[in-house]
C-alpha cells in the first residue's frame, strides 16, 4: 500500500518524495504493531531508494530487533550506524541498553552504559530505569538500589513501574520491611502516591509472612488513597488468616468478598483463591460453596 502511494505521487509529479522521516514514520508504525518483517521491508526499500537513514532510523531498526530478542542483529545495526558516521545518540544508547537488559545480559548493558559515559553522552532517567529493571530481573537488588540512588542524585523521578519492580525483588530477596522502607523513602523524596499495584505487592508479602496487623494498616492506607481491594487482596488476607489458624476472620472476609461482588480474576489468581477456600473449608470439615 505505502509503495503504491509513494510511486503514484512521485510519478504524477506531486512533489512528494519519500525521505528518512517518511520511512521512520512507517517503521515506527509497523514496530508498534509488532510486524517485524514489515519494518525490515521498509528499511530495505529505504536503502534501495538511496535514502540516507538518520540516527532515529537506526534506533527504530535496533529497537525492532531488541523487541524480538535478536541482539546480534541489533548490534550489527549499531556497528553499521557508527561505520556510516552517524553518531550514537541517547536514543540509540537507551535502545541497546534496554535490549540487553530484557534478554538478561545486564553486564553487556553496563558495558554500553560505560561506553556512553566515555563518549560524553548524558544519561537520562530512562537509561537508569532500564538498568534498574535489568538488575532486578537478574535478582541483583543491591545494584538496582545503587542505580536508584544515582537517579536521585541526578534529580530524576522514577516511574511507578520501576518502583514496583524494585519492591517485588526486595520482597523476594531482602524482606517486605526493607521494601516498605524503600517505598517510604521514595514517597518522601519524590512526593508521589504509590499506585495500587505497589500496595498489592506489599500487602501480599506481609500476609505471606504472617504480619496481618501491618497488612491491615497498609490496606486501610490503600483504601484511603481511593484504591478498592480486589480479589487478589482478599485472597492474600484469607490465606494469611488461615495460616494463623484464624478461620473465623478468613470466613468473614470470604463472605464480605462475595457480598461485595468483587470483579473476577484471571484463571491463575482464581485458582489461588479457590485453594484458600479449600484450606478453609477442609480445615473446618464444611461443605464447599457451589461454584
Automatic annotation (TrEMBL):
InterPro entries: PPR_rpt, TPR-like_helical_dom_sf. Keywords: Repeat. Belongs to the PPR family. P subfamily. Gene3D superfamilies: Tetratricopeptide repeat domain (1.25.40.10). It holds the Pfam family PPR_2. It comes from Anisodus acutangulus. This is Pentatricopeptide repeat-containing protein. PPR repeats lie at residues 19-53, 54-88, 89-123, 124-158, 195-229, 230-264.
Amino acid at each position: 500500500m505505502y509503495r503504491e502511494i509513494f510511486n503514484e505521487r512521485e510519478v504524477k509529479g506531486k512533489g512528494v518524495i519519500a525521505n528518512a522521516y517518511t520511512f521512520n514514520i512507517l517503521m515506527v508504525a509497523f514496530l508498534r504493531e509488532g510486524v517485524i518483517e514489515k519494518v525490515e521491508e521498509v528499511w530495505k526499500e529505504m536503502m534501495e531508494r538511496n535514502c540516507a537513514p538518520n540516527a532515529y532510523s537506526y534506533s527504530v531498526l535496533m529497537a525492532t530487533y531488541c523487541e524480538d530478542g535478536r541482539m546480534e542483529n541489533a548490534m550489527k545495526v549499531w556497528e553499521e550506524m557508527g561505520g556510516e558516521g552517524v553518531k550514537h545518540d541517547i536514543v540509540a544508547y537507551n535502545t541497546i541498553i534496554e535490549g540487553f537488559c530484557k534478554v538478561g545480559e545486564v553486564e553487556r548493558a553496563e558495558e554500553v552504559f560505560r561506553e556512553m559515559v566515555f563518549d560524553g553522552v548524558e544519561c537520562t532517567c530512562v537509561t537508569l530505569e532500564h538498568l534498574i529493571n535489568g538488575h532486578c530481573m537478574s535478582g541483583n537488588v543491591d545494584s538496582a538500589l545503587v542505580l536508584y540512588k544515582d537517579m536521585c542524585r541526578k534529580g530524576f523521578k522514577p516511574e511507578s513501574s520501576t518502583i514496583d519492580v524494585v519492591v517485588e525483588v526486595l520482597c523476594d530477596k531482602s524482606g517486605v520491611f526493607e521494601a516498605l522502607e524503600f517505598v517510604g523513602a521514595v514517597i518522601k523524596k519524590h512526593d508521589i502516591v504509590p499506585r495500587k499495584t505497589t500496595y498489592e505487592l506489599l500487602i501480599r508479602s506481609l500476609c505471606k509472612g504472617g504480619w496481618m496487623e501491618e497488612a491491615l494498616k497498609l490496606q486501610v492506607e490503600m483504601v484511603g488513597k481511593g484504591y478498592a481491594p480486589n480479589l487478589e487482596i482478599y485472597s492474600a488476607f484469607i490465606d494469611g488468616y488461615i495460616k494463623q489458624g484464624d478461620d473465623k476472620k478468613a470466613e468473614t472476609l470470604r463472605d464480605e468478598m462475595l457480598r461485595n461482588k468483587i470483579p473476577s480474576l484471571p484463571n491463575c489468581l482464581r485458582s489461588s483463591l479457590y485453594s484458600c477456600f479449600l484450606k478453609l473449608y477442609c480445615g473446618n470439615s464444611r461443605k464447599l460453596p457451589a461454584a
